[in-house]
Every structure is written in structure tokens, then in C-alpha cells.
Amino acid sequence: GHDCCETVKVALCASREGHPVLVVAEDSFQFIQDEAYDAAQFLATCAGNQQALNFTRFLDRSRPPAADVDFLDEKVALAFRHLKLPAEWNVLGADQSLTENIPRETLMHFAARLGLLRLTWFLLQQPGGRGALSIHNNEGATPVSLALERGYQKLHQLLTDEEVREPDSWSTLSHTVHSGDYSVKYHRRLDVYMLTAEA
Its GO biological process terms (predicted)? Predict the structure, then answer.
């Protein structure tokens, strides 16, 4: 999960109270653009774009195997989490003049149709995420009814329970706080903080 393709220099540092920070080792590695990155970029830009969202329905007709869907969910959701979305970005798209009673396809319909649990969790945390749950598409389905109709029990619970917890596999992932050209990332499983500076 990363927000752009670039070469990154990583320094491993050690510190003790009363002593200067010591650089133990340094190395560089390359972030590359992959299918998950492309998919997250595409989905982020097609929020509210009915033509693009209708195009995504071909994935539903191809019925990828469950293992592929789980892999897609994990990778795309992670890529989505690391995108630098504009401050005005909304799950329902930029056109907020649309009222909720106009039938239309949303990113939440896309995620619910394929059973993408982690992506749905991410979208629920974004502006317009909860509002998308009550929107009907042209077939009269809401994201909640799609999850129920397809037998996605965990996803249906995620969409209907107010106090539902984050998907389990994400409990080991990182949490990032951005501030200008700097970000602090906390990796829960390793109990490690990383400070990143854009250069």
C-alpha cells in the first residue's frame, strides 16, 4: 500500500536517551504501479460517474473465484487507504446536488456486489459512505440488499450494525497520519512507528 510510484530510501535508526540518533543501516527500494494501484485510482476517480460505475458491473458477470475476490479486496482496499484523496472527495461523487431518491450506481454498490468486505469498511469511513447505503440503483437494489441477496453474511452485518469492528486481518496493518510533507505510520503488529518525509 503506497500512494505513488517512486524510489524510497529507508534508514534503520537506533536511539537511547541522552545519546544522538544512530543510523544503523540504509537502503533504497522501488514502489511499482500494479493492478491494485490502478484499480484503486480508477475507482476513486469514478465515484459518481454512472458510465464508469456501470462499466464495473462486468466483473460481477465474470464471477471471479472467491480466493481471487479476497485477494482483490485486500490489495485494492490497501491501495485505496494510501491514496491521497482530495479534501472534497466523496463516495457519492462530486455532484452533491443529487438527492438520495434518484436511482444510481455507487461505489458502495460495486463493493457490495462483489462482496469486498475491506473496501466496504474503508468506504463507510469516508464522506458519503453511510449515505450510500440507502441509495437504490436502477434495479431497485441498495448495497445492503445486494449483500443479503448474495449471501455475504459478514458484509451484511458490516452494513447494518452500528458498532461493527474493523475486519480482522486489518488489525495487523498500519495506521497513517499525514501532516504536510511528513507522515507518521504506526504498524500495530510490529509496534513500530515510522516517520516519512517527502524529498
Answer: adrenergic receptor signaling pathway; positive regulation of canonical NF-kappaB signal transduction; regulation of Rho protein signal transduction
